[in-house]
Design a protein that fits this description.
By secondary structure, the protein is an alpha/beta fold. The chain is built from 7 helices and 12 strands. The longest helix is centred in the first third of the chain and has 12 residues, at 46-57. The protein is globular and about 45 Å long. The relative contact order is 0.16. The model has no long low-confidence stretch (mean pLDDT 95).
């Protein structure tokens, strides 16, 4: 692993790494890998491809992302003609995503806290993707029921919300807790997960999600495509506790 750059920011240190074998770029903050993409800007992280596949099924054409990292989901969505707005509280995140991870300049980038951004606007989106972390935790105010209620008012009548929730192991109930909060706001809530794998990404979704099916790999990256396709095949919708 080669360190390409290091940035000191008000929200923690950010490192840009590059894998010697594959040439992929990695965005690391607070000791956590937050993004990884191939040299063409396509993610090599399975949960990003899962979100991309779900958004494609939902035919979302106007997407708000809360949390940037390397911005690879935004890059992929932009390439298929989706209108993308990314909100992040750290201005360096956008600079890094554009310089090293291929985030197109045409993607709208807004420096703001996600909750403040939703409060300030009235635009309604086809989908909101919540993927904002401070270390290994979603900031408390971004996984509060009041925040989800606010997010609902910023979605179209057929809109969906998808949240990436880190699960340390099978006894970690954080994904279930988020799903329960969403169920107090939306009638239809689903949880896509892979049981038995430590330190994994579970996807919690709400809104017009009843007919969504297991996502498949739609944009194969230059490296690791077979492994990603296999990981996606192991995702299942499960009830929450």
């Amino acid at each position: 692993m080669i360190r390409v750059a290091k940035y000191h920011t008000d929200f923690g240190n950010i490192e840009v790494l590059r894998a010697k074998d594959s040439g992929s770029f990695i965005y690391r903050q607070g000791g956590c890998y937050q993004s990884e993409c191939d040299p063409n800007g396509v993610s090599v992280v399975p949960y990003i491809h899962a979100i991309f596949g779900l958004l494609a099924q939902a035919q979302a054409s106007d997407v708000l992302m809360i949390g940037c990292g390397g911005g690879s989901l935004g890059t992929m969505l932009d390439r298929v003609g989706v209108r993308v707005t990314i909100v992040d509280i750290n201005p360096k995140a956008f600079q890094i995503a554009q310089k090293y991870f291929g985030l197109p300049r045409g993607v709208r980038c807004c420096i703001s806290d996600g909750r403040d951004f939703l409060r300030a606007g009235r635009h309604r989106y086809d989908a909101i993707v919540l993927d904002a972390y401070s270390g290994r935790r979603i900031p408390d105010h971004l996984c509060a029921e009041t925040f989800f209620g606010l997010a609902q008012t910023r979605l179209s009548s057929s809109g969906i919300l998808i949240g990436n929730v880190h699960a340390r192991h099978d006894l970690d109930i954080m994904p279930d807790r988020v799903a329960a909060k969403l169920s107090n706001i939306w009638e239809n809530v689903r949880l896509l997960d892979t049981r038995g794998i430590p330190d994994r990404n579970a996807l919690v979704m709400a809104g017009k999600v009843r007919d969504l099916v297991q996502p498949i790999l739609l944009i194969p990256p230059a490296v690791g495509a077979d492994e990603i396709a296999n990981d996606l095949s192991q995702l299942v919708f499960r009830p929450w506790r």
